[in-house]
Design a protein that fits this description.
Layout lengths: L2 E7 L15 E6 L2 E5 L6 H8 L9 E3 L5 H4 L2 H8 L2 E5 L7 E5 L2 E4 L6 H6 L2 E5 L4 E2 L4 E3 L16 E5 L2 E4 L8 E5 L2 E6 L6 H12 L4 E7 L7 H12 L5 E5 L4 H11 L3 E3 L5 E4 L1
Parallel strand pairs: 3-4, 4-5, 5-8, 14-15, 15-16, 16-17
Antiparallel strand pairs: 1-2, 1-18, 2-3, 6-7, 6-11, 9-10, 10-13, 11-12, 13-14
Helix pairs in contact: 6-7
Bound molecules: fe (ii) ion (2 copies).
One fe (ii) ion (FE2) binds next to helix 2.
Length: about 280
């Protein structure tokens, strides 16, 4: 099965007339099925889609990688284009999520109520487990954290009974597609670790080889040591294409570019790839 991937929203752009916005949204076309992973922060996806030849009315499913607004904030506007659609996510997507900037805690959770989105046609499938969309396409459920060097960003919190507690980001999930040449893994922010995610993808599918990885890696605040260990571990998955986005950060992107050479690219709004 051939898979076509178009990035509809990202912090930067690589196509004429397309808007950049902090966040991420990636459309996956596998056979006749179209799955939209995340919806960007606000207006970028509905703006960019027609300019990239994408009709949002043809989207079959939406997957939300986690509850942060830079992945869910475009959902209301996207729903006005898709109409009735299944939205697959984790129940913690509704948690009151915050980021600490110095002394200030800023709300960064989903900016809509469930009722508001359902009234626009969203039909939520909320699961802690993997959800198989077809025999070849699966979203991870909760991603086990098994590596020593991958930790969740300590500035991310949830507000529970007026207390700020560290966010375990159990809602962090990836989209995995089985192809003839190996797995394609689409990351949202990769909050629970890119290597943890790839191990989980292998386990879920029984496929050893990971052909393509694209999306956010959340290496933006990672130590040089973590990036070095991540790069070395990525090598072991046989990756042929690594397209980092969004929360990767320039130092980590540069290290990965050096490590992966021609296999590396920056996956920004307007990037199109086909596998195989
Ligand atoms: Fe993000
Ligand atoms: Fe995030």
């Amino acid at each position: 099965m051939q898979v076509r991937i178009i990035t509809l929203s990202e912090n930067t752009v690589g196509a004429f007339g397309v808007l950049a916005e902090w966040g991420l949204s990636i459309l996956v076309e596998a056979g006749s099925l179209k799955v939209l992973m995340d919806t960007g922060l606000s207006i970028s996806v509905p703006h960019n889609a027609p300019r990239l030849g994408v009709d949002l009315a043809t989207v079959d499913k939406i997957v939300l990688s986690h509850g942060h607004a830079d992945h869910t904030g475009g959902l209301r506007d996207v729903l006005t284009k898709t109409g009735k659609v299944e939205v697959i996510a984790h129940p913690d997507m509704w948690a009151a999520k915050y980021m600490r900037f110095g002394e200030v805690d800023v709300y960064i959770g989903i900016p809509f109520s469930r009722e508001e989105l359902e009234a626009l046609g969203a039909s939520f499938t909320l699961s802690r487990e993997p959800v198989w969309i077809t025999d070849d396409i699966v979203t991870t459920g909760e991603i086990p954290m098994i590596t020593q060097y991958e930790q969740i960003d300590p500035n991310l919190y949830v507000k529970v009974d007026e207390e700020f507690v560290p966010d375990p980001l159990l809602d962090d999930r990836a989209l995995i597609i089985k192809t003839d040449v190996g797995l394609v893994v689409i990351l949202g922010c990769g909050h629970r670790g890119i290597i943890n995610t790839l191990h989980h993808a292998r386990e879920l599918t029984g496929v050893e080889l990971v052909h393509t990885v694209i999306g956010g890696t959340h290496l933006v605040s990672a130590s040089e040591e973590r990036v070095r260990l991540t790069a070395a571990a990525l090598r072991e998955f046989g990756i042929q294409r690594l397209g980092v986005s969004h929360c990767t950060g320039m130092p980590a992107a540069m290290m990965l570019a050096q490590e992966f050479g021609d296999a590396f690219f920056f996956n920004n709004a307007g990037t199109r790839i086909t596998v195989p």
